[in-house]
């Protein structure tokens, strides 16, 4: 059996291979050969140290398969056993490379109590700081010939932009983090002659990007994308022209109450396969709750609405003029719009929005927005990270429509991960005919 470990590392990849720090990041521009280097380093380590335990992670399963499982299978060419159920490569010397993904925030907890000598985060800026910190606790070793190491590859932008930039670019250390533990190797596409030769058009494509993306992806500039919270939002994928939605689809509403600040109400429809459409918005400032309730009813017409969730402040008694000390929720209820208190967990809620915007396995996002919902479309991409809590949205943002979106999404069950989704029905004679089932003992 011959390994297909072809290629010679370029000088930056050599630096990546040679680094020995506790945390080693290789990042910046697109196409520099980061994923190649990560895969190759993992294979080299696995061969070099017997019984080494390595974990290589990406945020989603399709990315993991495309970027690592398939290339590793090709490169290792059967010389290493691949256990498909475990998604693990078992080396003849006892080393093991496990591949995994952490689609949801909580998916990292599946690694609780496990120990890995080496952990790699591919596209580290797609991971949250909490996920990274938790994974660091699994990166430990009892061996004397190897000290645990974390490897990161990354491009600017994404949910983890802030922590990657803080640790590896700004080198701003806190709470016992030590500067000498962090090494950053900047990547440039011009470092990768293989790609430039095989696909010269790629450089032109990067050069033609809008300025901020070009600076980030071609020049590896970490400042331009700083802050944007939902980098996943993409008009061409998430915004659609209004169409008539089938009457039988489930519908519900979500509201972020406000008087001096705008009040935003969103209408949602659920397609049978679980995809969501935000198909209407109401965005009003300095309007009494009774008037908003009236407009909500009027706009809804004869659509059947299952429920309306609202921000918890709708239950405070404010004594607003016209509300006579009643809570906003009571006023809405009296005016024919009963409200349910929304789940107001902020970080999980934003994470839920992020999941709904992300590419689903079928190539379309879970959430789409009618282009008539102008304020939601305007403000969602304007949200920025909170400077103090890099997993939350900053409180200076105009976030009323995104908050209503978050409440709406949190009122829905989460879609199942791909491997738990029901498989399409297939006729199976062994199931259809009782006599044919194993162990059948008569009717
Ligand atoms: N040293 C090398 N020898 C041979 N091929 C290489 C080498 N380095 C990278 N490549 C090839 O160049 C292409 C781009 O590399 P890779 O996917 O690793 O880049 P990347 O920096 O991870 O890109 P992205 O930023 O898009 O994630 C791939 O086809 C990869 O196999
Ligand atoms: Mg890559």
Tell me about this structure:
The strands form two sheets. Strands 3-4-5-2-6-7-1-8 form an eight-stranded mixed β-sheet, with helices on both faces. The protein has helices at residues 11-18, 34-48, 61-76, 129-138, 161-169, 193-198, 201-207, 211-217, 235-238, 289-300, 328-334, 346-357, 374-379, 400-410, 429-432, and strands at residues 23-28, 53-58, 81-83, 88-90, 96-101, 118-121, 149-154, 182-187, 239-240, 250-256, 263-270, 276-284, 308-310, 340-341, 367-370. It has 443 residues and is an alpha/beta fold. Helices cover 30% and strands 17% of the residues. Bound molecules: adenosine-5'-triphosphate (ATP) and magnesium ion (MG). Residues 7-10, 13, 30-36, 155, 187, 192, 194-195 line the site of adenosine-5'-triphosphate.
Give the distinct bound molecules.
adenosine-5'-triphosphate, magnesium ion
* Main sheet makeup: 8 strands, mixed
Overall average pLDDT = 87
Helix content: 25-40%
SSE string: HEHEHEEEEHEHEHHHHEEEEHEHEHEHHH
- Radius of gyration equals 26 Å
Q: Beta fraction of the residues?
A: 15-25%
Q: Outline, from the CA principal axes?
A: elongated
Distance from N terminus to C terminus (CA atoms, Å) equals: 54 Å
Strand and helix map with partners:
Layout: H1 11-18, E1 23-28, H2 34-48, E2 53-58, H3 61-76, E3 81-83, E4 88-90, E5 96-101, E6 118-121, H4 129-138, E7 149-154, H5 161-169, E8 182-187, H6 193-198, H7 201-207, H8 211-217, H9 235-238, E9 239-240, E10 250-256, E11 263-270, E12 276-284, H10 289-300, E13 308-310, H11 328-334, E14 340-341, H12 346-357, E15 367-370, H13 374-379, H14 400-410, H15 429-432
Parallel strand pairs: 1-7, 1-8, 2-5, 2-6, 6-7, 9-15, 10-13, 12-15, 13-14
Antiparallel strand pairs: 3-4, 4-5, 10-11, 11-12
The structure holds adenosine-5'-triphosphate and magnesium ion (MG).
Magnesium ion binds at residues 34-35, 153.
């Amino acid at each position: 059996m011959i390994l297909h470990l072809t290629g010679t590392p370029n000088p930056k990849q050599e630096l990546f291979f040679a680094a020995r720090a506790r945390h080693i990041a290789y990042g910046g521009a697109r196409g520099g050969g980061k994923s190649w280097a990560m895969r190759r380093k993992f294979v080299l380590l696995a061969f070099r140290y017997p019984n080494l335990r390595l974990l290589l992670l990406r945020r989603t399963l399709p990315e993991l398969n495309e970027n690592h499982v398939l290339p590793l299978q090709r490169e290792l060419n059967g010389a290493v056993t691949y256990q498909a159920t475990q998604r693990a490569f078992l080396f003849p010397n006892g080393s093991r490379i496990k591949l995994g993904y952490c689609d949801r925030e909580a998916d990292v907890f599946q690694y609780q109590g496990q120990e890995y000598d080496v952990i790699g985060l591919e596209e580290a800026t797609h991971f949250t700081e909490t996920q990274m910190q938790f994974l660091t606790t699994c990166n430990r070793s009892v061996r004397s010939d190897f000290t645990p190491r974390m490897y990161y590859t990354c491009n600017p932008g994404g949910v983890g932009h802030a922590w990657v930039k803080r640790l590896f670019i700004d080198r701003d250390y806190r709470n016992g983090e030590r500067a000498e533990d962090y090494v950053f190797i900047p990547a440039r596409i011009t470092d990768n002659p293989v790609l430039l030769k095989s696909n010269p058009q790629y450089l032109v494509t990067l050069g033609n990007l809008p300025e901020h993306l070009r600076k980030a992806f071609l020049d590896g500039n970490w400042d331009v994308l700083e802050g944007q919270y939902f980098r996943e939002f993409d008009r061409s994928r998430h915004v659609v022209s209004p169409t008539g939605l089938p009457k039988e689809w489930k519908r519900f509403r979500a509201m972020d109450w406000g008087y001096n600040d705008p009040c935003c109400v969103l209408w949602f429809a659920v397609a049978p396969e679980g995809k969501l459409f935000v198909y209407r918005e109401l965005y009003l400032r300095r309007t009494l709750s009774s008037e908003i309730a009236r407009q909500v009813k009027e706009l809804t017409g004869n659509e059947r609405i299952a429920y309306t969730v609202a921000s918890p402040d709708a239950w405070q008694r404010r004594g607003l003029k016209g509300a006579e000390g009643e809570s906003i929720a009571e006023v809405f209820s009296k005016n024919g719009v009963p409200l349910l208190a929304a789940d107001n967990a902020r970080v999980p809620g934003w994470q839920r929005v992020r999941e709904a915007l992300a590419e689903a396995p079928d190539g379309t996002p879970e959430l789409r927005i009618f282009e008539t919902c102008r304020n939601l479309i305007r403000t969602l991409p304007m949200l920025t990270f909170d400077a103090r809590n890099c997993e939350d949205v900053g409180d200076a943002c105009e976030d009323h429509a995104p908050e209503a979106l978050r409440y709406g999404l949190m009122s829905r069950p989460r879609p199942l991960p791909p491997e738990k989704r029901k498989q399409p029905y297939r006729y199976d004679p062994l199931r259809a005919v009782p006599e044919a089932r194993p162990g059948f003992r008569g009717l």
